[in-house]
Amino acid sequence: MSKDDLISVIIPTCDRPQYVEEAIESVINQTLQPIEILVMDNGYKPYSYNGPNELVNVVRLEPRCGVSVARNKGARLAKGKYLSFLDDDDWWDKKFLEEALKVIESQEVKCIYGRKDKFINDEQKKYKEPTEKDLTTNVLFKKNPGTGGLIYSLKKKYFSRLVVLMKI
């Protein structure tokens, strides 16, 4: 992995330490390690990560500022060329970042998303599948068409342009 291929992971959280720990662990266990994990804490009770991993940086925000503010502030603080977002109550398969980077680079796309699944009685089931008309930049960055927060992986420069263009 070259210096140009560095990934920052942004995890917004709000008073759910029992979930965010699993999300963080799923990032730490990736086959392709990010350069940082920014946990954007906007809960009433401050979250403190006590794990051994130096990649994790908890950033305290105004309580209840919201998930969008948390993601946007995390994106601005991120040092990586690529941004990948994960909700605090979700987790990734071990190869998520590796596969996301392969798709972005090999297909020269600007943004990808991953399908959400859920587990019922230890069986993996499809959870949310947005339609093709919902998978536009305008829809994805203004509302949740059923993709969730764990979906986005993209180059930071494109995220920054979208924030300016859409006046988010």
Sheet/helix structural class? alpha/beta
Sequence stretches where pLDDT stays below 50 over 5 or more residues = 163-168
Per DSSP, the total helix count is 5
Order of helices and strands: EHEEHEHEEEHEH
Detail the topology: elements first, then pairings.
Elements: E1 7-13, H1 17-28, E2 36-41, E3 56-60, H2 67-77, E4 82-85, H3 96-106, E5 111-112, E6 116-120, E7 123-128, H4 137-140, E8 153-155, H5 156-165
Parallel strand pairs: 1-2, 1-4, 2-3
Antiparallel strand pairs: 4-8, 5-8, 6-7
Commentary on this structure:
- With 168 residues, the chain is of the alpha/beta class.
- The protein has a single domain, classed as Spore Coat Polysaccharide Biosynthesis Protein SpsA, Chain A, CATH 3.90.550.
- Helices cover 29% and strands 23% of the residues.
- The chain has five helices and eight strands.
- It has a six-stranded mixed beta sheet, sandwiched between helices.
- It is globular.
- It starts with 6 loop residues before the first strand and ends with a helix.
- Mean pLDDT is 81; it is low at 163-168.
Q: Main attributes?
A:
168 residues, Spore Coat Polysaccharide Biosynthesis Protein SpsA, Chain A, two-stranded antiparallel ribbon, globular, disordered C terminus
